[in-house]
Design a protein that fits this description.
249 residues, alpha/beta, eight-stranded parallel sheet, 43% helix, binds 2-phosphoglycolic acid, triose-phosphate isomerase activity, TIM_sf, cytoplasm
Length: 249
């Protein structure tokens, strides 16, 4: 079911003590909200984050996982390992995973299927690079990212998918897509899903925007009809900024 979500992607930031301190501050300052609030610390701090937030409504999610069940994959983490410590949602397809760790659409499709097979929720990230937008290919790039990794799924899988549109040129750059650019792409994504599956699925999927969301621009971006929330990087590392973004929704 479509819902409002604000998720903090902490990336490779915050050690154990810093994680604990930031989570304490965020949960103490969390306003009453009907939105789902999620945080994603690094793998080594996930289990302690789950314990720390046991009595909180804040959900702890993972930044990545491997598609295999187990085995000789040095440095990797499986779905079962995440589930075992109480993590039910995983971010897949982040542009940094695609750009720096060679994650292709093909690998991502395997990861999505592996997570869904374990009844996990997938937050699937996609988005065009600057060159794609400049050459007016942003819609076709996004369409093929979605098609290659998600359109082979059964219709029933969509209740376990959250989408996050993150134009690569807006991530960590301070440059945000305008609320109109975000709305235009989100509407396009919904239309593409309606064509590939059906209108109900398209209407029910939550589509987050990510890329330099901050307290000063969150409200305007979130006010757009097809934007259901945000995936927040840099601003999620400062409790007051993250809380201000939660309030904006
Ligand atoms: P940013 O990162 O908010 O720092 O641009 C967003 C993301 O990569 O998820």
């Amino acid at each position: 079911m479509r819902k409002k979500i604000v998720a903090g992607n902490w990336k490779m930031n915050k050690n154990m003590q810093e994680t604990e301190a930031l989570l304490s501050e965020v949960s103490a300052k969390l306003p009453d909200t009907s939105a789902t609030v999620m945080v994603s610390p690094t793998f080594v701090n996930l289990a302690s984050a789950v314990n720390q937030l046991e009595d909180s409504t804040i959900e702890v999610i993972a930044q990545n996982m491997h598609f295999a069940e187990s085995g000789a994959y040095t440095g990797e983490i499986s779905a079962d390992m995440l589930l075992n410590i109480g993590i039910n949602t995983v971010i897949l397809g982040h542009s940094e995973r695609r750009a720096y760790f060679g994650e292709t659409d093909e690998i991502l499709e395997k990861k999505v299927k592996a997570a869904l097979a374990k009844n996990m929720t997938v937050m699937f990230c996609f988005g065009e690079e600057l060159a794609d937008r400049k050459s007016d290919n942003h819609f076709s790039v996004v369409e093929s990212q979605l098609k290659n990794a998600l359109f082979g799924l059964d219709a029933s899988a969509w209740s376990s998918i959250i989408l996050a549109y993150e134009p690569v040129w807006a991530i960590g750059t301070g440059e945000t897509a305008s609320p109109e650019q975000a709305q235009e792409m989100h509407a396009f994504v919904r239309k593409t899903i309606a064509t590939a599956f059906d209108q109900t699925i398209a209407d029910n999927v939550s589509i987050l925007y990510g890329g330099s969301v901050k307290p000063s621009n969150a409200e305007e971006i979130f006010s757009k009809p097809d934007v259901d929330g945000g995936l927040i990087g840099g601003a999620a590392l400062v409790a007051d900024d993250f809380i201000a973004i939660v309030k904006a929704i």
